[in-house]
Amino acid sequence: MAYFADTKVFQLNPQSPDAQIIARAAAILREGGLVAFPTETVYGLGANATDAAAVDRIFSAKGRPASDPIIVHLYDVAQLEQVARDVPPLAYDLARRFWPGPLTLVLQRGAAIPPNVSAGMATVAVRMPNHPIPLALLRAADLPVAAPSANRFARPSATTAAHVLDDLRGHVDVVLDGGAAVIGLESTILDLTKEMPEVLRPGGITLERLRALIPGVRLVTRHLQPDDAGIEAPGMLLKHYSPHAELLLFAGSAEAVRVCMQAAARERLSAGQRVGVLAADEDAPDFAATAAVVFQLGARADLPQIGTNLFSGLRELDRQGVDVILVSAVEPVGLGAAIYDRLLRAAEGRVIECKS
Ligand code: AMP
Ligand code: MG
Question: What CATH code is assigned to 8-219?
Answer without folding.
Answer: 3.90.870.10
